[in-house]
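Blinded run. Sample ID left blank on purpose so nobody reads anything into the name before looking at the predicted structure. Input follows.
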Amino acid sequence: MSQESLPKSVLYAISARIGGIGLDLVAHETIRGIQPFLGKAISYGVRAPDVDRHKMKTLRFHPVRLLSNLERKYYYAAKKRAVDRVCEQFLKTGRFDLFHVWSGSGLHGLRVAKSLGIPSILEIPTWHRQKGKVLPAKMAHEIAMENAPIPQRWLNRLLISRQESLEEYELADLLLVESEKAADSFRVLGYPDEKLYSMPQGVDINRFQPGPPPPLFRAVFVGALIKRKGVHILVEAWKKLKLPNAELWLAGYPHEEIKPYLVDLPASVKVLGFRSDVENVFRAGCVHIFPSSLEGSAKTTYEAAACALAQITTREAGDVVVDGLNGLVIPPNDVDALASAIQLLYDQPELVRLYGAAGRKRVLEQFTWDHFRDRVLAAYRLVMGRAAESPRLHPVQ
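Blinded prediction complete.
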């Protein structure tokens, strides 16, 4: 598509910071890619040194910061609502011809964009709010939250309701989803493919590089030690196998729910705790195991692939691993399937090497941050092109 189909002034918004790790890093890489036509970026804060500060609007002096002592889930939701209200005011100026916002932070902004005919993109870091399930308009627990005694009712109103998320999905012109599994959670509820756009993340291929082969079969898990990521399933499978000359490293902060599973571990299991140098953890291993039951697209799968590790993961963890190409894809919450996959790679070191090399190759061809930024621009061209052809949308000139 032509340069003319790109926007002239984008309003970008996220309740995280710009620059850092996780969503902060994704936001930074997005800003790097859209700087030439970025009108304003609204965020909680800015850590990145290489962005135009004149184009940044943060919540540094916003009254929402007075709520920082609230329980995390309430404060995070309050930040999203604050970003949303700032978006609403900026969009009303008519200075922007594209609105790009993260889910949970854009309801009022999307309403304004729709009323003014400004094309909009909603970025979704995980699955559909209902995880592909058909639910009634209001669930019993949602009604109970609405009718809770004061002040709990006031706190509950800070949270982003399911109904608000559903309205965001309907208002946005394009939904950015990180994996096919995430897209399926929308498709099953009737969302057409043309409203969904694949937006896998990227990885720093210079930071994450292959290391020397370890002296033994060393499997690594990197991520928060919680049940959703399948840590308890991994520990059970590892205990069941009793592999000689093998180690399992668990790198991540152990949450309370997982601590009972970390008691009386065999000597071959090492709990490393949180590590900021995860690249060194990957480089010390030969296999990455990530049996998660719910992700948008797990960043550790990108990092492990970049470090040329064979992987055992689930479809729920994203699309980096292709079964039989650069690893093994198993069902979540299945101890026997996981144990069989580990045994297979333990028995076939040459297959581990081949999977690892294929993983690195796949990253270099599809999942660098350059690829990610190209996908962002392609999404912008798509939605702007549709806007130009639609009588319903009239972008600001």
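Unblinding after everyone has recorded impressions. The domain at 3-202+369-389 is CATH 3.40.50.2000 (Rossmann fold).
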